[in-house]
Write a structure and sequence with these properties.
Belongs to the sirtuin family. Class III subfamily. The chain has 223 residues and is α/β, with parallel strands linked by helices. Helices cover 32% and strands 20% of the residues.
């Protein structure tokens, strides 16, 4: 049985990381368009660097929760028949033990060079260093997919959705595309679709909805 799981900020909420939408339109105190766009980075590099520094720092204070661990168990059972796609840029899936995680919106723990595109693991001083370790140019940026940029892994995701049997969306409001459209691809493949969320999203186009906190409904669904 082939399964695709899509996670969003809601799976990390009970670990203590703020979600995008539950912050009354402000995201960690900023309007998303002020910090999560290439234009914002070009206009106010320091503000955007600080925004991601703050989120990296908060990662050190949190840990995976029961929902992340339940998906590790699902991976143990399904192996390569599970594709875990996350919109999240945190590393909680990996720290829980998930081995195959597709970060379609990038990762807080990585930076990349705007000139030579080389990717680098984050080290505290790196982003404020002037030079890319690969090409030496002062052009490092967070390895994050901002609004208006092309998400990672789209071919692999579409391939998986074309032959999926079960598609589950966990802790996502379904407002950010193209992730929000994956359920439509799953339906086109004849898959069973499941939504696990604190509150059912208004779209209501999933076959089944498990309403409740992820730390309760995800282990129950995986069991
Ligand atoms: C692209 C990185 C071209 C940044 C992020 C008009 C219509 C349609 C689309 C567009 C449009 N105008 C512009 C677009 C495109 C745009 C888009 O979708 N905009 C939206 C706002 C309308 N998309 C893009 O620009 C994307 N690129 O389109 O490129 C293209 C075209 C075709 C094919 C491919 C590419 C790039 C989008 C990526 C942006 N970057 N993140 C960063 O993180 O710093 S997105 C950002 O939003 C985060 O990744 C975050 O994950 C995501 C928000 O979504 P959620 O994860 O769902 O989080 P949210 O807070 O919204 O919801 C939380 C949910 O959890 C809620 O439902 C809540 O009920 C639930 N919850 C809370 N607590 C719990 C819980 N559930 C369970 N348990 C709990 N305890």
């Amino acid at each position: 049985m082939k399964v695709v799981v899509l996670t969003g900020a809601g799976i990390s909420a009970e670990s203590g990381l703020a979600t995008f939408r539950d912050a009354d339109g402000l995201w960690e105190g900023h309007r998303p368009e002020d910090v999560a766009t290439p234009e914002a980075f070009a206009y106010n590099r320091a503000l955007v660097q600080r925004f991601y520094d703050e989120r990296r720092a908060s990662l050190r204070r949190v840990k995976p929760n029961a929902a992340h661990h339940a998906l590790v168990e699902l991976e143990r059972r399904l192996g390569d028949d599970l594709l875990l796609v996350t919109q999240n840029v945190d590393d909680l899936h990996e720290r829980a033990g998930s081995r195959r995680v597709l970060h379609m919106h990038g990762q807080l723990q990585r930076v990349r060079c705007e000139v030579c595109a080389a990717g680098h693991e984050w080290q505290d001083d790196l982003l404020h260093e002037p030079a890319c370790p690969e090409c030496g140019r002062p052009a490092l940026r967070p390895d994050i997919v901002w609004f208006g940029e092309y998400p990672h892994g789209m071919d692999e995701i579409h391939e998986a959705l074309s032959e999926v049997d079960v598609f589950a969306a966990i802790g996502t409001s379904g407002v950010v595309y193209p992730a929000a459209g994956f359920v439509d691809y799953a339906h086109a493949s004849g898959a069973t679709t499941v939504e696990l969320n604190l509150v059912p999203t208004p779209r209501g186009d999933f076959h089944t909805t498990y309403a409740g906190p992820a730390t309760e409904v995800v282990p129950r669904w995986v069991r």
